[in-house]
Amino acid sequence: MTIDQIIHKVQENNPKADIALLEKAYEFAARAHGSQKRRTGAPYIQHSLHTAFVLAQIKADLSTIMAGILHDVPEDTEYTLDDISKNFGGEVAALVEGITKLSKIKYRGVERYRENLRKMFLAMAQDIRVILIKFCDRLHNLRTLDVLPEEKRRRIAQETMEIYAPIAGLLGIWRLKWQMEDICFKYLYPEEYKKLEYKYEVEKKTERNQYTQRVKNILSQRLNEEGIAYNIEDRLKPLYSIYKKMQKKDRKFDEIYDVFAVRIIVPTVSDCYKTMGIVHSLWKPKSDRIKDYIAVPKPNGYRSLHTTVYGPENKPTEFQIRTREMHEESLYGIAAHWYYKHKGGSDYKNQPKWIQEILNIQRQTENTNDFINKVKLDVFQDRIFVFSPKGDVFDLPEDATPIDFAYLVHTEVGNKATGALVNDRMSSLDRPLKNGDLVEIVTEKNRKGPNTDWLEFAKTNRAKEKIRQATKSSRFEQFKRIIPGMKK
Ligand code: MN
């Protein structure tokens, strides 16, 4: 990575940007880090440049990119925040200060987790750009995780899944969220990752390409006739999102995979509606899958038309239809939102309303737990994180129960479970867990095995499979399913 690549990217978004400032920041950081090396053996300044480059990709403003180049200077070199302030002014210095404060949080167990989240939101309250820099810094650290010892690797990946990725989603920066999640997925669930990667990116690739090409050919003709300029893309789905769907809906890869995904980008809003009309005239839509997020955007500002149709060969095909601006906003979230509002000169004070709401919650709540509880409703939509007494973190689908947790810990813990302690209180095995719960499973050594009733409230595939396996051999259990109430 070179400073020229960053300059090039910045100029693409904003031809009038003051490039001299970027060069100055680069020279300053390069001098400060001197001969320091990363664990990978690369010069330290490479990390600073990679961080800044991703910031330029998501269209962050110039001060943010400069702060990205300088973000590790006060912490890791003999130059201070004062030096940065003198050379680059108060705005850049304040951003670097925000990052330096955030990096002091270390992750240990449940309390630290909550405190961590709170600090992230506090930093967001002061200046949301600090979080953008932190994301890009983290992304580069993830990309170089290989050099770290196994335990540290897992810890960083886990922390990213719990804290960084959900917040990136909340801010609508999907591109960063997906990139972070896929890397963490690889480290946290290496086998599942490898299997999915092979199926999706090797086995199915040709089939996908051929199918998309067919859809494109048919559509292009009609769009040309209507005089609509368009861009049709095959949508690659992030692997972790496929994995989550498989877990949540209890379905096999092929069922999830069988939905093809195509994106059409057109110039104007009225082109979006015309294009949807064309798609529906070519293929029969599933009526319950037509979504107009242009007329009614999602709470996080997301806009697009969605529809699922029975495409060529009657294959279910998802379409997203949107303008270029909507598309970039969907990838870069708030960063692009400001960019389009103020063409190059971002105005970070003019925040979307929903961020203001988070900040209001933050101002009104003293207590960390209350704050987290109020915010997490939005942040953690479909995953929860619970803790073992030792402070290990377990990632579960929403509405998971102690029995799911038990089988995640160990098959034997599941098979011998009789009850659970949730936040130190006795709980039945079927009561849904909540984010941040501390869970301990009560076991009984002499217990023969699981109960088939558990299948009714187990949410994860893993728990269901283990319960089925353990009960399959018991003929009595099979009869019991046919004749409820049968006594031994
Ligand atoms: Mn860093």
Automatic annotation (TrEMBL):
InterPro entries: Beta-grasp_dom_sf (IPR012675), HD/PDEase_dom (IPR003607), HD_domain (IPR006674), NT_sf (IPR043519), RelA/Spo_fam (IPR004811), RelA_SpoT (IPR007685), TGS (IPR004095), TGS-like (IPR012676). It comes from the Bacteria. One of its GO terms (cellular component) is plasma membrane. One of its GO terms (biological process) is guanosine tetraphosphate metabolic process. Pathway: Purine metabolism. SMART domains: HDc (SM00471), RelA_SpoT (SM00954). CDD domains: NT_Rel-Spo_like, TGS_RSH. Residues 44-142 form the HD domain. Residues 382-443 form the TGS domain. In eubacteria ppGpp (guanosine 3'-diphosphate 5'-diphosphate) is a mediator of the stringent response that coordinates a variety of cellular activities in response to changes in nutritional abundance. NCBIfam families: spoT_relA. Belongs to the relA/spoT family. This is TGS domain-containing protein. It comes from Candidatus Falkowbacteria bacterium RIFOXYA2_FULL_47_19. The lineage of its organism: Bacteria, Candidatus Falkowiibacteriota.
